[in-house]
Amino acid sequence: xxxxxxxxxxxxxxxxxxxxxxxxxxxxxxxxxxxxxxxxxxxxxxxxxxxxxxxxxxxxxxxxxxxxxxxxxxxxxxxxxxxxxxxxxxxxxxxxxxxxxxxxxxxxxxxxxxxxxxxxx
Length: 121
Fold this sequence. Notes:
Layout: H1 2-20, H2 24-34, H3 55-61, H4 65-73, H5 86-98
Helix pairs in contact: 2-5, 4-5
């Protein structure tokens, strides 16, 4: 039984792993091709439109990767009609998230601190 589970997990990882693994470097290339005319997409980029947020600001706004992916998959009137594949969206989301604050990371505790009790806000 155990070997069947391991085999299933291995086959699943081989079949879906490349599709699930987002590549932020590929996301940067997509951003430079589609988005850099209006957005500041990378640190050190000299220009972007003053009317649109930078990718770093977008990374700070979207806490949920799925919400950002859904936004990128939906047409938005002021953006070009770019039809991205799911892997391209995943790459772009991965890149954008790399520019923002790290989320869901446990904060280091001082030696006298205790983790917060989730039942007492």
